[in-house]
Automatic annotation (TrEMBL):
Keyword Iron: no
PANTHER family found in the cross-reference section: ABC TRANSPORTER ATP-BINDING PROTEIN ALBC-RELATED (PTHR42939)
InterPro entries per UniProt: AAA+_ATPase, ABC_transporter-like_ATP-bd, ABC_Transporter_VariousFunc, P-loop_NTPase
Domain named ABC transporter: residues: 5-227
Pfam families cross-referenced by the UniProt entry: ABC_tran
GO function terms (MF aspect): ATP binding; ATP hydrolysis activity
Entry annotated with the keyword Signal: no
Keywords, sorted A to Z: ATP-binding, Nucleotide-binding, Transport
Source organism (scientific name): Paractinoplanes toevensis
Protein known as: ABC transporter ATP-binding protein
Length: 292
């Protein structure tokens, strides 16, 4: 499988503060990848390392088979505040994009601005938050990048603007096949568009894998109180809650759980992510990568 991003023990520190720790990932190309975690987890740091805006403190990183390069035309990046220049018009932004990017698709950019019913003469500073996000996305995809990085692009948008942004993103991905990595702490948004997931908590990767596989191998298990260590081989307890008489577990298992002593149910993506996040937040540093 072709890799879009490969990291080995990637670490970024600011003095004594660790923003990313021993991050080892192999992100496959051709996917829409959700990078999910709470604020301060290291998501923005990872994306900035991938696009060459930051240099790592330790470890290695390759992007599209080569070291990252700042401003690479092969990578499109929309930062967290969906940056545009308030004093410049949309037309000015498109002109700059065309001047700076050799593979610029002017027809794509202008057709998209027209479809969004935006006036090219409008100053970016007069646009709504959703409109600015759409302009920033247009600038990123008109580069015709091989890899598109989106850092919490919809965090500050209202529900309708979020839906319109994500719809536009998926239309572009369906047409282009571009690899996408999108960070967010809004799991519901990622669930709508992503087919691969990375959970990052407290600067460490907790789990990675294709969404379909993750959902198939994680289960809610309830029954009489049990020691999680006694569930048997091939079963990893991600989260455990107990009363005096009952246990409620989130379990990862490569084989069906058919023990009649337990009630077993599926899990949705939000509950799966929250299980990893809550255990990490409680100080249980269970770090699990994709089972191979």
């Amino acid at each position: 499988m072709t890799s879009a991003v490969v990291t080995q023990k990637l670490t970024k520190k600011y003095g004594r503060k660790t923003a990313l720790s021993d991050c080892s990932l192999d992100i496959p190309a051709g996917h829409v990848v959700g990078l999910v975690g709470p604020n301060g987890a290291g998501k923005s740091t990872l994306l900035q390392l991938v696009c060459g805006q930051l240099n790592p403190t330790a470890g290695s990183l390759t992007v599209l088979g080569a070291p990252p390069v700042t401003g690479s035309p092969r990578i499109g990046f929309v930062a967290q505040d969906t940056p545009v220049y308030g004093s410049l018009s949309i037309e000015d932004h498109l002109s700059f994009g065309k001047h700076l990017n050799p593979a610029w698709d002017d027809d794509l950019a202008r057709e998209r601005i027209e479809r969004l019913d935006l006036d090219p003469k409008q100053k970016a500073g007069k646009l709504s938050g959703g409109q600015r996000a759409q302009v920033a996305l247009t600038l990123a995809i008109a580069k015709r990048p091989e890899l598109l990085l989106l850092d919490e692009p919809v965090a500050a948008l209202d529900p309708l603007a979020r839906r319109e942004f994500l719809q536009g993103l998926m239309e572009y991905v369906a047409e282009s096949g571009t690899s996408v990595v999108m960070s967010s702490h809004l799991v519901a948004d990622l669930e709508r568009v992503c087919d691969y997931m990375i959970v990052l908590v407290k600067s460490k990767v907790r789990v990675t894998g294709e969404v379909e596989e993750l959902l198939a191998t994680h289960h809610h298990v309830t029954g009489a109180r049990v020691d999680p260590e006694n569930l048997g081989p091939g079963r990893t307890v991600i989260q455990a809650r107990h009363t005096d008489v009952q246990s409620s577990l989130v379990v990862r298992s490569s084989a069906p759980i058919d023990d009649p002593a337990f009630s077993v149910a599926g899990i949705d993506l939000e509950d799966l992510v929250l299980a990893y996040m809550s255990e990490a937040a409680n100080g249980r540093d269970r770090v699990l990568e994709k089972q191979r």
